[in-house]
Specification:
6 strands, alpha/beta, globular, Rossmann fold
């Protein structure tokens, strides 16, 4: 199916063949963000793909959010509980709505939008 560039571009976080088959039937652009073991399958079946290890949090954690933003992705959709926090962090970058909480020593925290 031809993808309509005027419609939203989504990133699917996680791996599910059923979800990939479903999203492929829509006329929206998408990219699958999944573990490295999915790469061969994605290449063989022409599935847009970015490898990512969701189990490892480190100083590269914001890298995937920025990469998706640079690609023009509008929203990240988590498939599993393990990717929900990632989706929240990524979407805060994609939607420019990062909220910073300052709880340094106070009983009440203040939140500011960046």
């Amino acid at each position: 199916m031809t993808k309509d560039n005027s419609k939203g571009y989504v990133a699917i976080l996680g791996w599910s063949l059923s979800a990939i088959e479903a999203i492929d039937r829509f006329d929206r652009r998408y990219v699958i963000v999944a573990p490295e073991w999915a790469q061969t399958y994605c290449q063989e079946h022409n599935i847009p793909y970015i490898p990512w290890n969701f189990e490892r949090l480190n100083d590269r954690s914001m890298e995937i959010a920025q990469q998706l933003k640079d690609m023009g992705v509008d929203v990240a959709i988590p498939l599993f509980e393990e990717t929900v926090e990632w989706a929240g962090a990524i979407n805060s970058v994609l939607l420019d709505s990062l909220i910073i909480h300052d709880c340094s020593g106070n009983r009440s925290c203040s939140a500011t939008r960046r």
